[in-house]
Amino acid sequence: MAHLTVAGFEIHTSYLAPDAQHALLDALRQVVRAAPFVDPVTPSGKKMSVRMTAAGQYGWIADRQGYRYAPQHPQGTPWPDIPESVLEIWRDLTGLARMPECCLINYYGKGARMGLHQDKDEASYDWPVVSISLGDDGLFRMGGTQRGGKTQSIWLNSGDVVVMGGAARLAYHGVDRIRFGSSTLMPKGGRINLTLRVTT
Ligand code: SIN
Ligand code: MN
């Protein structure tokens, strides 16, 4: 386990040991059973390459109506609870009593990516966003608070956790590409990223 800070992004490499990664994946399988992955589209109708679901009081939704936090899965059911093991990571790394209300679950299959963006749909930007990576390596790009500014990239590996707080809370970030099949964690390959957010 090591800890480095890049442009305000706090990167905890190998935060989760392999057994903890497997346990977390098992907990996520339960979540996905109740709240299956959906293929989100942008408000302009463009299909996003990541598949998404969520746990917690709110899930983040992208569809023709826009981007927002919603209390129900598009299938009309409440989101499953955030697994206790996930909340434990939040507590350990943030030290906060306030708990996240959304655990967004992104699945990156072959060729999936996420464009540079800011996380701006939350009611307050005073709380950090915590991002947990599982499975295949992902090339994570980090910038500043202005679009078009200088960026730096690092490969996030399975078990790495990034805390985006303070100056990095509203910083641009994205995933350029994944190395499909680089991890043995998930038999069929791919990358899972969890982001924990205080939304209200
Ligand atoms: C996100 O910004 O929602 C995901 C970041 C990542 O996949 O590492
Ligand atoms: Mn984001």
User: The CATH topology is what?
Assistant: Jelly Rolls
Helix amount: 10-25%
Biggest sheet: strand arrangement: 1-2-11-8-13-6-3
Element-by-element helix/strand order: EEHEEEHEEEEEEEE
Q: Note the overall shape.
A: globular
The CATH H-level homologous superfamily:
Alpha-ketoglutarate-dependent dioxygenase AlkB-like
Question: What percentage of amino acids are in beta strands?
Answer: 35-45%
Quaternary state reads single chain
Look at the structure and give the mean pLDDT. 97
Number of DSSP strand runs = 13
How many domain units?
1
CATH class label: Mainly Beta
Associated small molecules: succinic acid, manganese (II) ion
The Rg value, from CA coordinates, equals 15 Å
Polypeptide structure, described:
It is a single chain. The chain has one domain: Jelly Rolls (Sandwich). Helices cover 14% and strands 36% of the residues. It is built from two helices and 13 strands, in the order ββαβββαββββββββ. The strands form three sheets. The chain has a seven-stranded antiparallel sheet with strand order 1-2-11-8-13-6-3, with helices on one face. It has a four-stranded antiparallel sheet with strand order 7-12-9-10, with no helix packed on it. A two-stranded antiparallel ribbon has the order 4-5. The chain is globular, with a radius of gyration of 15 Å. It binds succinic acid and manganese (II) ion. Residues 117, 119, 173 line the site of manganese (II) ion.
